Amino acid sequence: MKLVVFFAVVVAAVAQQPPRAVREQFRVIYEWRTIDFEWESPTVRETYLNTSRYIPQNVLISGINYYENNIFLTLPRMLDGVPATLAYIPANQNDTAPKLKPFPSWEDNTIGVCDALQFVQNIEIDRNGIMWILDNGRVGTLTQNPSTKCPPSIVLIDLKTGENKIERIPLSLDTVDLSKSYLNDLVIDNRDGDYAYITDNSAVDPGIIVFRLSDKKSWKLRDMKSMMSVPEATIFRINGTTVNLPVNIDGIALGPQFIADDGIIDRTVYYCPLSSFHLYAINASVLRNESLSEKGEGAIRPYVVDLGTKASQTDGMKMDSTGMLFFGLIGNSTIAEWNSTVDFRVGQRTIARDPNYIQWVDRFTFDDHGNLYVVVNRLYNFVKNQVSLEDVNYRILRSYTGLKSYVYGEDLMPPTPPQNAAATRTIAASVLVLALAHLFA
Questions:
Q1: What is the predicted pLDDT for the residue at 14?
Q2: Are strands 278-283 and 348-353 parallel, antiparallel or unpaired?
Q3: Helices (DSSP H) in 15-124: which residue ranges?
Q4: In order of start, what are the domains of the chain with their CATH numbers?
Q5: Where do the DSSP E strands lie in 163-262?
Q6: Cβ pair 65, 81 in contact under 8 A
Q7: Residue 380: closest CA among 251, 254, 240
Q8: Lowest-confidence pick of 22-26, 155-159, 170-174, 252-256
Q9: From residue 262, how far is each of 1, 265, 285, 417, 419 by CA, in Å?
């Protein structure tokens, strides 16, 4: 299968950005008409096909992450016939449409077994080599009869050991609803006990779920004004296809650490509904304040900042370690970036545009070598049940940026308070008296 290159579109806003490594054009490195797997045998594959446990046109790539030369891909079970919901491919290979290997194994993707993965929308891998998996536990979300197999959970796998053992942590039922919550995306904050900030784009109760690993506790914060879809942004038009998707809070990103006015170390969490043109921000310290969740909807509203509007709607987004945000503009067939040290209203910059190859940007990830990867999945066709087996439906694009993921951002230390001069003199005098006492004893 012949792969192509499309060119980055550079605009005048580049003058506002600090000097960075020379960028490459985005290139298509993998592309698939349908997703296939490395089966145990051809007979097993045929059995799965004959029993509708594998329906090729129903397997969609959504999330992406990278670890030690492997690319991990999520395959949410929105429709029937998705045999594995988490898989991987080696990052460097000659096959342009590689078959996926279920992760951690075929058995660990068994539907209806709560020790296994049920419905994985997205994952993140933190700086310690821990894979954080969002498992909704409910399958067939685009069918007439979605089925709750297991509770919505955080699933952890320590990739460093190579054993790939699954640890499932069901979220509190005070936080999630078995039939309505939809764990969409997450960022990891490896400070003070390790936190995950998770978007729940439930149609009736959207919000940000905060999960603290140290005590496995979770809570949810809601703000309808910034987390709900808006009517003027529910219509998506891509290459002549129109789809109506009133989807609530979706993409999320985490900025670098900074020292707040009160001297604490904080970070900014960025988020947006899928069906919105706005980007919002709130400090992580606010989300960590569990008492605000007890006050109900709108308690965090005074702390939410509307940064401004984008030219189109955005699905996934990703922050690098220095504060550069990468995001898609779905209706414009565009990949964009924003240096978060610059006003969002004037600092956005288009870095790639192509109506043929950038059709619904979903998720981003960085590797260990300064490359940025992007999943393009034509989701608008998938939700309308119009996936053509004759067309390329899923692509992974890559561009060298010289950057790395936000999880490797610099750790800051709180400022050291100035030493009290009078107290210092008193301590010094006390030491002197003590020394003289020993001398003349």
A1: 37
A2: unpaired
A3: 42-50
A4: 12-440 (2.120.10.30)
A5: 166-170, 183-189, 195-200, 207-212, 217-221, 235-238, 241-244, 249-254, 258-259
A6: no
A7: 240
A8: 22-26
A9: 57, 9, 12, 12, 18
